[in-house]
Write a structure and sequence with these properties.
This protein is an alpha+beta fold. It is built from 14 helices and 33 strands. Strands 4-5-6-7-8-9-10-11 form an 8-stranded parallel beta barrel, surrounded by 5 helices. A 6-stranded antiparallel beta sheet has the order 26-15-27-32-29-30. Helix 7 (about 165-175) links the parallel strand 7 (about 150) and strand 8 (about 185). It is globular and about 80 Å long.
């Protein structure tokens, strides 16, 4: 046990100055059986602390229904066993390139911009959540023999709002729930962010990727006393679908890290190990300086160009950072742990069964909604997945443009059962006019809720209406298909049919004349892959367009042929020796095989 406090210039452990050399690692982005290895990698890099966010929406999928809140406690126990301290950032909002910035869809759908403010309807849910979560933290504080030395109040609030009463409420609530270690805030090193995001009596820290001296000068104007800390030292960056992969030179990042430490400051490397947004939990951003432009969906991989890559392996940046950090170590750094087992050899599989989307929806979809105007995903209780909207254009009438207003995010449109196009803009018009009468179906997919900026919490689905010429088409039936519905019991109810004429060539590619199903269209494809020598792997989907993949019931996340991500990371513990089952939910056009490499 010990006492961790904030001094006039330093962090103090039992009265002695200490420097925090921390690294971000999100327990929810790493398979639990691999926590021990990843924490050992952080220690070997020269870190003495680990930082993690806590995603509220992952743990409270419906109001008052909780899912594995104890995962945080188990992670903190692993941190203690690894010989590290811990910094916990419980939100309520976390950003983290995570769906809705960690806020539950059922909360933002009901309250909109009232979240992250001193709104009573919002605070009652924050209060309930914190009182459920924080016992996992309180019992593991350093003064109780645990690793937790600091807890954050909210997150980068100065980038969003200026409700000082709300920040004070969050800080007071943390203390009322039993948090006795120091609290802190973190914001960009700009005057408006620090005035909006910090409160008296709570340590302010700053986030940046370079220019440490200038950043700390700004911080000192707002906080003349107290230890300096970069709470997010951005050593890499995330990527959006359709963009280039973000890469930062290792030596450049190491020099920027050295500048932070030369200032006498503490640091949290963001990310030390990024991991993966399994389960379709990756968020999205709005383009533009004001974050109000087109949607940019974040890829499944959260590799972040971090020093420990997505598969847990050291990169050039790892060795460059280790060279910097070992100057501040009290003794020799631990050896770098052996890498996790990797798949012994390449294997491939072709689909042997499939079901069209309509059949999948009938088996796994939610109850159908019927009303005059389109409901949003939030109205239907859908967090991740898609919604089918069905409307009838009356007739007889001549062909007119069919438009959708307030579309979020991507709709595949069918007219009388024939695919008519894909719509992506918020206000989109189908390429070919539609005559009436006609049945129109829009299969709308959420590509991730916005996790940062003023459009945080915006609704998904058809948030406006469907227009034929200038006339709203009223009378809408809508049905959700949630990612979480794809369980072993659920998929067993899907009416699969054999895929005709599919055989495998020796290298796993489809033999001539093979095909992935009638037309290779949208639907759920099931296949098995035989594995000898299970371990970490990458799953490739050549020729597939966009959708989700499950391996032995574990959702690896979204894939999309537009790149830059070309495969999905498969944690070794998900694979098993012998037969493994793969499900691929393809939303536009299927390929012929999948490969594990």
């Amino acid at each position: 046990m010990g006492e961790f406090t904030v001094g006039d210039r330093d962090f103090l452990l039992d009265g002695r100055p200490v420097r925090l050399l921390s690294g971000a690692l999100h327990y929810f982005r790493v398979h639990e059986e691999q926590w021990e290895h990843r924490l050992a990698m952080l220690r070997a890099m020269g870190l003495n602390c680990v930082e993690t966010y806590v995603p509220w929406n992952l743990h409270e999928p419906e109001p008052g229904r909780y899912r594995d809140v104890g995962a945080l406690g188990r992670f903190l126990d692993a941190v203690r066993e690894a010989g590290l301290w811990a910094i916990v950032r419980p939100g309520p909002y976390i950003c983290a390139e995570w769906e809705n910035g960690g806020l539950p869809h059922w909360l933002t759908g009901r309250l909109g911009r009232r979240v992250r403010s001193e709104d009573a309807g919002y605070l009652v849910h924050v209060n309930r959540w914190f009182r459920t979560l924080l016992p996992e933290v309180v019992a593991r504080q350093i003064d109780r023999g645990g690793p937790v030395i600091m807890v954050q109040a909210e997150n980068e609030y100065g980038s969003y709002g200026s409700d000082q009463g709300y920040l004070r409420y969050v800080a007071d609530l943390l203390e009322a729930c039993g948090v006795t270690v120091p609290l802190f805030t973190s914001d960009g090193p700009e005057d408006h962010m620090l005035t909006g995001g910090s409160i008296p009596g709570v340590l302010a820290t700053v986030n940046f990727g370079s220019g440490a001296r200038a950043a700390f000068e700004v911080l000192r104007r707002h906080q003349p006393r107290g230890p300096l800390m970069c709470m997010e030292f951005w050593c890499g960056w995330f990527a959006h679908w359709g963009d280039a992969r973000a890469v930062r030179d290792a030596e450049d990042a190491a020099a920027a890290l050295a500048e932070v430490l030369d200032c006498g400051a503490s640091v949290n490397v963001y990310m030390a190990h990024g991991g993966t947004s399994f389960g379709g939990w990756a968020g999205a951003n709005r383009a533009g300086a004001l974050h109000d432009g087109p949607l940019e969906a974040t890829v499944t991989s959260y590799d972040y160009d971090a020093p420990v890559d997505e598969a847990g392996l050291p990169t050039a940046k790892f060795w460059a950072f280790r060279s910097v950090l070992e100057r501040y170590a009290t003794g020799p750094l631990p050896p770098v742990p052996a890498p996790p087992a990797r798949l012994a050899g390449r294997v491939a599989a072709v689909p042997h069964e499939w079901a069209p989307l309509e059949g999948v929806l009938d088996a796994l979809g939610d109850e159908e909604w019927d009303g005059p105007v389109p409901p949003t995903f939030e109205d239907l209780g859908v967090d991740r997945g898609l919604v089918r909207y069905r409307l009838e254009v009356p007739g007889p009438r001549q062909p007119y443009p069919l438009a959708v207003t307030g579309l979020r995010d991507r709709a595949v449109v069918y007219v009388d059962g024939v695919r008519a196009g894909v719509l992506e803009a918020e206000d989109a018009v189908l390429a070919e006019p539609v005559a009436g009468p006609a049945v129109v179906e829009l299969w709308v997919e959420s590509l991730g809720r916005v996790n940062y900026g003023p459009r945080l919490g915006e609704a998904k689905g058809v948030t406006g209406g469907v227009l034929h010429e200038r006339q709203y088409v009223h009378g809408v039936r809508a049905r959700g298909l949630r990612v979480d519905a794809f369980t072993a019991d659920g998929v067993a109810k899907v009416p699969f049919t054999p895929v005709p004429g599919v055989t495998a060539a020796p290298d796993g590619a489809p033999a001539p004349g093979g095909g992935p199903g009638p037309g290779g269209g949208a639907g759920l494809y099931r296949m098995v892959v035989e594995v000898a020598g299970a371990g970490d792997a990458a799953l490739e989907l050549p020729g597939w367009t966009r959708g989700f993949v499950w391996l032995n019931g574990f959702c690896l996340g979204r894939y999309w042929g537009v790149g830059p991500q070309e495969s999905l990371f498969v944690p070794g513990p998900v694979l098993r020796e012998g037969t493994n089952e793969v499900w691929v939910l393809e939303l536009e056009g299927a390929g012929a095989s999948v490969r594990l490499v």
